[in-house]
Write a structure and sequence with these properties.
Strand order of the largest sheet: 3-2-1-11-12
Helix content: 25-40%
Distance between the termini: 47 Å
Number of helices: 11
Shape: globular
Structural class: alpha/beta
Order of helices and strands: EHHEHEHHHEEHHHEEHHEEEEE
Number of strands: 12
Length: 317
């Protein structure tokens, strides 16, 4: 691992980490306005903005959310924008043919075996083009037979991924293979280019003990505690799509904590994915919305650790 961040190299640039959006365009617009209002103009205009993934599904406006995100570099040319890949975005990309091919040359159909026992219950997609589709794309575009999601106390929206609203935002019915034609090329390029992990050196963070200069790693779900960090980072940077389930994008308990080896170099790990807002030391989980209509979208501002929500009333306007 690299050596500890040198505070003399730490810049005063603001870092904004934005939680899972899940197709809620009006919430995103309100959150963005609140961030802009809360920060001095110079700080906002020059900020590093990291979107933590899961732009699609559940909410009604996936197409508009992607339009908004794609427009940011031209609208705010002095900001730096990082768009992480979430497990929902991975599956969406898989369905519309926007995943990079497996680096080992294997077909995407080789990813089916691990989840095959769930195929009937989850109603995997079997329409045009399924023969060489990554397993997560088939699960995403399928039609789950058990309509009620007992864990969330509500019906699934089409598939195990709640993908029906994404289809509908592009003007096609859930499960239609025509989605691949309906999704604009710039949206496919956006999905294909999503980062699986992002690293920053020399990021300031404040806590009760003062201000610290840290390394930052942003990844949708987190890093696996029981595996070596360097190998995980190498795999994530390679975007190895031969893997059936990328734990750093999809894991739960196994990616909740910061791997111990990162304690030597104080490292912030920031994620979304987990359907809650959780801040414990340098472990930041920013997903207060969880894709649920009644919950707010949230972002965290570094170094101050201030949480901003779409529901905050920060100006009369």
């Amino acid at each position: 691992m690299s050596s500890a961040s040198d505070s003399s190299n730490c810049t005063n640039r603001v870092v904004i980490c934005v939680g899972d959006l899940h197709g809620y365009i009006s919430k995103l617009q309100s959150l963005w306005s609140n961030l802009q209002y809360r920060l001095p103009a110079s700080a906002f205009e020059s900020a590093l903005v990291i979107f933590l993934g899961d732009y699609c599904d559940r909410g009604p406006g996936t197409r508009l959310v992607l339009d908004f995100l794609i427009s940011l570099p031209s609208r705010y040319p002095n900001q730096t924008h990082v768009f992480l890949c979430g497990n929902h975005d991975f599956a969406f990309a898989a369905f519309v043919g926007a995943l990079p091919p497996p680096p080992d040359g294997s077909p995407f159909s080789a990813t089916w075996a691990e989840f095959q026992a769930n195929e009937e219950r989850e109603g995997w997609f079997k329409g045009t083009g399924y023969e060489n589709m990554h397993v997560q794309g088939r699960r995403w575009g399928g039609c789950i037979k058990e309509r009620f999601n007992a864990k969330k106390g509500m019906d699934y929206k089409g598939s195990i991924y709640d993908a029906a609203p994404t289809f509908e935002s592009y003007g096609v019915p859930h499960g239609s293979p025509n989605l691949a034609k309906a999704v604009p090329e710039d949206h496919k390029k956006f999905l294909s280019n999503l980062a699986w992990v992002h690293e920053e050196d020399n990021v300031w963070i404040e806590d009760s003990k003062g201000k610290h200069c840290c390394k930052l790693m942003a990844v949708h779900a987190g890093l696996e505690k029981a595996k070596g960090v360097e190998n995980q980072l190498k795999q994530l940077k390679a975007k190895d799509t031969s893997i059936q389930k990328v734990e750093a994008l999809s894991g739960r308990k196994n990616v909740w904590e910061i791997p111990k080896e990162l304690a030597e170099t104080p490292t912030i790990i920031v994620s979304g994915h987990h359907g809650k807002l959780h801040i414990e030391g340098l472990r930041l989980i920013i997903d207060e919305g969880g894709g649920l209509e009644q919950n707010p979208l949230a972002a965290i501002i570094l170094p101050t650790m201030e949480i901003i929500r779409d529901t905050n009333v920060l100006s009369a306007g």
